Amino acid sequence: xxxxxxxxxxxxxxxxxxxxxxxxxxxxxxxxxxxxxxxxxxxxxxxxxxxxxxxxxxxxxxxxxxxxxxxxxxxxxxxxxxxxxxxxxxxxxxxxxxxxxxxxxxxxxxxxxxxxxxxxxxxxxxxxxxxxxxxxxxxxxxxxxxxxxxxxxxxxxxxxxxxxxxxxxxxxxxxxxxxxxxxxxxxxxxxxxxxxxxxxxxxxxxxxxxxxxxxxxxxxxxxxxxxxxxxxxxxxxxxxxxxxxxxxxxxxxxxxxxxxxxxxxxxxxxxxxxxxxxxxxxxxxxxxxxxxxxxxxxxxxxxxxxxxxxxxxxxxxxxxxxxxxxxxxxxxxxxxxxxxxxxxxxxxxxxxxxxxxxxxxxxxxxxxxxxxxxxxxxxxxxxxxxxxxxxxxxxxxxxxxxxxxxxxxxxxxxxxxxxxxxxxxxxxxxxxxxxxxxxxxxxxxxxxxxxxxxxxxxxxxxxxxxxxxxxxxxxxxxxxxxxxxx
Length: 486
Ligand SMILES: Cc1cc2nc3c(=O)[nH]c(=O)nc-3n(C[C@H](O)[C@H](O)[C@H](O)COP(=O)(O)OP(=O)(O)OC[C@H]3O[C@@H](n4cnc5c(N)ncnc54)[C@H](O)[C@@H]3O)c2cc1C
Hints:
Blueprint: H1 14-23, E1 28-30, E2 33-35, H2 44-60, H3 62-65, E3 66-68, E4 75-77, H4 86-101, H5 112-123, H6 125-128, H7 134-150, E5 154-156, E6 180-184, E7 188-195, E8 206-209, E9 224-229, E10 235-239, E11 263-273, E12 277-280, H8 283-291, H9 295-325, H10 331-356, E13 359-360, E14 366-367, H11 371-395, H12 405-408, H13 413-419, H14 427-441, H15 444-455, H16 460-470, H17 474-481
Parallel strand pairs: 1-10, 5-8
Antiparallel strand pairs: 1-2, 3-4, 6-7, 7-11, 8-9, 9-12, 10-11, 13-14
Helix pairs in contact: 1-2, 4-9, 5-7, 5-9, 9-10, 9-11, 9-14, 10-11, 11-14, 11-15, 11-16, 14-15
Flavin-adenine dinucleotide binds next to α15.
């Protein structure tokens, strides 16, 4: 498919994305400084360029990344499409994979993450409509069209802050820290409190809030779901320190480009227009919109496609390093590379199995079979750190033989060319390779990437126990029972 002039193209270009970022004055706090436009901040501007690249990329690969809107046929990003067939799922996965490849899978929260989520929510608006929430359900259907047709970049904040995880939201810090409703007008609800952790907030047009945990039935003020422009008065984004390196990309090839940023969101009596509210006070619905919409299968389709790309990148780094330094000849290094490949291949197989086992639900939305994903959900937070460990074991001290470009081109240029060479790479290539690998496993951004993989879909322990709880145990039990009868 080419972006034919006669067909309306809703998908944005990088330029349009950047104009959108600059068009809203947001309240970002970084290092004591209030930033209203991320493009005017030297470090924040770096990942904005990578995001713009993602928006341009969809036009360069329109046949894979764009699809016709079911409403008017205009071209939209394929990840906005509510899947109505297995082919839709496969096309969506291809779009996610190609997008993730641009950052080697290191950007976890590119817009496709929430595109997939809201396509799922809109496709199952009947679940949102339960218990007389027809208006909220209609709002989410409308909102998904807005996301799709304006090709928005969105962030989300699902968890209440870490005050005391052993207590319900309403019992922590007098109930004041967790996001909750404090008032209502004819046209809006008023919300106060905070939520973590809005990745991409600095590069988003809109903030979305939806459930990330269960609530007690009495905690109605905390049962909220809505969406707002990031520039809405009262919204404050408090960022961690930036890991973006303005220095030469030779020195920090990933940190220079891909720090997608994470922020706590503070809601200082924020007015949410009622047509942007999806759920208000329904504590039962708060759980059901996650469990009964098929969201798990959909979001893991996105998450593990990106994970497949990131694991492939890690495997590629290990393979190229081992061949550069000759250690590939040792059996135990081959075994370590084999372990990395196993993770790649098992992830790819899980995605294929989930697509092969996909079925339409009662609303005709095609859902991936979530069983292989549930199994991966417990394992991936262990595999990603394991891949980093294996890379360190393969690379050894080579990660420290990494002078900067200034040294490579400086007075010791000839010494560096001689003493930093590897059997399979000249000095410059070897230094570039190890600097890239260190930015993956060991830099501030690399460390953040590892933490992200451990927690972004909740922790491995709870997810493994969830997999056990919802697993079908019939066959396994029957194997045992047959010997307990005589
Ligand atoms: C880099 C990064 C980016 C993220 N981006 C986003 C984002 O964009 N949007 C978003 O909504 N969220 C995001 N998250 C947050 C993510 O949703 C949470 O980190 C995750 O849900 C875990 O919650 P927590 O970090 O508060 O850890 P906690 O829940 O406080 O857990 C800390 C430790 O305590 C244990 N623990 C806590 N509660 C229990 C319990 N009830 N039972 C047993 N053990 C328990 C955990 O297993 C863990 O070991 C991000 C997280 C990270 C690290």
